Amino acid sequence: MIDYAVNNRSTILDALGQHIWLSLVPVLLGTLIALPIGYLAVRYRSLYQPIVNIGGVLYSIPSLALFVVIPAVVGIGVLSPLNIVIALTIYTLALMARTVADALLSVQGETTRAAHALGYRPVRQLLGVELPMALPVMFAGLRVATVSSISLVSVGAFVGIGGLGALFTRGLQLDFIEPILIGIILSVLLAGLCDLALVLTQRRLTPWTRVVAR
Amino acid sequence: MTAVTPMINYFGYLLDGANWAWSTSGSIPHLLLQHIEYTLVAVLISAAIALPVGLLIGHTNRGAFLAINIGNAGRSLPTFGLLSLMVTLVGIGTLPVLVALVVLAVPPILAATYAGIRSVDRSAVDAAVGMGMRPTQVLFRAEVPMALPLIISGLRSATLQVCATATVAAYVGFGGLGRLLIDGLSFNAYDQVFAGAVLVALLAIAFDLLGAATERAVVSPGIQSRGTRRTRPAPASPPARTAGTSR
Description:
heterodimer, A: mainly alpha, 10 helices, 82% helix, transport (chain A), ABC_transp_perm/SBD (chain A), MetI-like (chain A), transmembrane helix (chain A), transmembrane (chain A)
């Protein structure tokens, strides 16, 4: 396996590089779009259930199908990486819109009433009190979204752009285990590192959770 | 290809009666049944593994660290990679597909079961102990009924993921609705791919509705009225979900 890794170093590193941006750009985009949608679901409570349901439906469309249907609908080539980015952004959005709403709803009524009593105006209360208090739940969802995005990218290899997934198809075609193992190990390592980065970021951003935790 | 593709093209495969014939193998009803079978078998095996382990860890609170990390590691395993690995190791067959799907479904069920049991109000558990219940009675008469909404939501999301991912199995010569996707892709038949996507999504929704109905049927009304409607997100939020992050 080490020999294979050394001999194919540049192929593997290219695949890893592609994997990283193909999986992380959608997480960022999806989360940014999910923030206002999640907020709307809390502000106008009747929107909550429809948003949750639409998210569930979007999440149930197989990634493989999205990778193929999106180019036909959007009018880009099947081989365009944009294809994977759009598909995974849709998944992140589906997951995070609900998470953002749940996170804002998890903020205790006492807290928001206290902020209100202190004279916080709605916008300042949202940005200064509710959003920070919602971070733990939001981060829990973000971790799931990030890790699943990283493991989903490889399915793109079916249509020829899948980052580390290219190593899987290659191993299958050649009936050769090395590229597959290397691909899995790198994918899991990448997911682990990103997860760790999120945990550390959350610790920095929400120091109070460590005090409250038993 | 023209710039504007008429909408009817997408539905061509779905609306062609020939593709719905029972007699031909590989027709939509056959693939649908196969897909249902893979999904159910994979979820049942996963539940048989994850539920007892999750209950044990939640009840004793021992090995929680292990459960959370196995859950996270399992979630990060690329299903397609695992499937490729199994196929190169044992060859094409049912086993590689099932292993890949079970590895996919165990983490969400395990995590939800563990979190569900841990999120049960401690005073209720204390009351059960005070009433003289033995540990198994505490678990099955107090903790499990109260944790059911979370446990079922874990099962539902596992089913959703398995149903969507089972399509990947078609790449290694397996059946199910993935066939429509893979075959359609290789023939550039977008209506066939579209049919596969629509059917899998519909099947997933059907499974989810079934899950919702089950939840309504088995969860005690006392917990439902508290757990669903207004405070629905609450049980899944701070105590349950951050359990993994703060420890």
